[in-house]
Design a protein that fits this description.
- The structure is a single chain.
- The protein is an alpha/beta fold.
- It has one domain (about 10-185): Vaccinia Virus protein VP39 (Rossmann fold), CATH 3.40.50.
- Helices cover about 35% and strands about 30% of the residues.
- The protein has helices spanning about 10-20, 20-30, 50-55, 70-80, 120-130, 150-160; strands spanning about 40-45, 65-70, 85-90, 105-110, 130-145, 165-175, 175-185.
- α2 (about 20-30) runs parallel beside α3.
- The protein is globular and about 40 Å long.
- Bound molecules: S-adenosylmethionine (SAM).
- It holds the Pfam family Methyltransf_25.
- InterPro entries: Methyltransf_25, SAM-dependent_MTases_sf.
């Protein structure tokens, strides 16, 4: 099994604990400026909690593409998302999956960047920015200091990739610790 792939226990415990904090996800996703007609790329869909909520927000004019490096996590996403015509699931590295540059109005990233090896993180962020159409949004929430990730890193990467900061919100919960959510717009 590759290092990306979770064990059965990890999948079980993530889904079990996740079932107690659906409000944590729902309140966040309900607060986002999603109209429903966008192409949304969800990067690192994992257990699919966000995917399910995002898929319910999009109309027939919109589309949700979930990308995950792990085939096992993507199988979990598949089970919880109604994979109708408006949802596509893609497994692989972001630079290998068939998503055209400048095709997405929203790139959604929730608790993923801190999991990416530091030496790959900038390339991942840059590739995600390329997928975004001009005027499109990167919507990002990550824990403040895990795996070498920091909000300052995100701000720096955004500036380097031609994004302007629309909002930045700091939160803290007992189960996630400190975290910051950002919305960046591609100029
Ligand atoms: C902590 S989980 C978060 C899942 C989900 N976004 C959430 O908030 O519940 C991180 C997810 O990112 C995926 N991931 C990690 N590195 C990745 C990469 N380089 N490309 C795509 N997905 C990646 C993992 O396989 C895992 O599904």
């Amino acid at each position: 099994m590759s290092t990306f792939e979770p064990t059965n226990f990890r999948i079980f415990i993530t889904r079990f604990l996740g079932s107690f904090i659906t409000d944590f996800y729902k309140e966040y996703i309900d607060s986002l400026p999603i109209k429903g007609n966008e192409n949304i790329l969800e990067f690192g869909s994992g257990s699919g909690v966000c995917s399910r909520m995002l898929s319910k927000k999009i109309s027939q004019q919109g589309h949700l593409t979930c990308v995950d490096i792990s085939s096992r996590w993507l199988d979990v996403t598949r089970k919880v998302v109604d994979e109708v015509s408006k949802v596509t699931l893609l497994q692989g590295a972001i630079w290998d999956v068939p998503v055209s540059d400048e095709s997405q109005q929203i790139v959604f990233i929730h608790f993923v960047l801190h999991d990416i090896p530091p030496e790959e993180r900038s390339r991942v962020f840059q590739t995600l920015c390329c997928k975004l159409a001009p005027g499109g949004l990167i919507i990002l929430r990550e824990p403040d200091s895990r795996g070498g990730y920091s909000p300052e890193w995100a701000k720096m990467q955004a500036a380097e990739n031609g994004l302007e900061e629309i909002s930045s919100t700091h939160q803290r919960t007992w189960y996630t610790g400190d975290m910051t959510s950002f919305i960046f717009r591609k100029t």
